Amino acid sequence: MNVKVFSRSKEINEVAKEYAKEKAMKLARYFDGVNAIDVTLNIEGDVYSTEVVASATKGNKFIGRSKDKNICAAVDTSIDKIENQLRKFKEKLKGKKRRSEKTTVILKGTEYEKTSLKGDGLADLWW
């Protein structure tokens, strides 16, 4: 996974950049499909703003933005937003797989019931 940390201001030190990089590296444990992460740090007056963009497979992008007076808090908040998005996306993918399996089981059950009712005279009433 490729992690890049950008700074729009010279006032942001290397310690803050390393902190952001370490936090961004931990995003890989939530979803294996993350290819690259770009972290942008900025300062406007006394407020730090961060933007984290995680690029995943098939062109999916996850974006987290936050502002805070403490740069570590701003980084943590934006990383937390990305973590939540990745968890939801992963659950969505798992849900699609489970739904398709359940659908085939239900359809098989319906075909079985339909064929078993044909012997009675009730099949015409239900179908």
Can you characterise this structure?
- This protein has a single domain (2-93), classed as 2-Layer Sandwich (Double Stranded RNA Binding Domain).
- Helices cover 50% and strands 28% of the residues.
- It contains 3 helices and 4 strands, in the order βαβββαα.
- It has a 4-stranded mixed β-sheet.
- α1 runs parallel beside α2 (71-117).
Summary?
With 127 residues, the protein is α+β, with helices and mostly antiparallel strands.
The CATH first-level class comes to Alpha Beta
Number of strands: 4
β-strand percent reads: 25-35%
Largest sheet: 4 strands, mixed
Estimate the helix proportion, in percent.
Answer: 40-55%
Instruction: Assign the CATH architecture.
Output: 2-Layer Sandwich
Whole-number count of domains? 1
Task: Tell me, briefly, the overall form.
Answer: elongated
CATH superfamily: Ribosome hibernation promotion factor-like
Written as H for each helix and E for each strand, in order along the chain, the element string is: EHEEEHH
Please list the strands of the largest sheet in the order they lie side by side.
Answer: 1-2-3-4
Number of helical segments? 3
Fill in the CATH topology: Double Stranded RNA Binding Domain
Query: Structural class, from helix and strand content?
Result: alpha+beta
Mean pLDDT: 83
For the terminal residues, how far apart are their CA atoms? 55 Å
In angstroms, what is the radius of gyration?
Answer: 25 Å
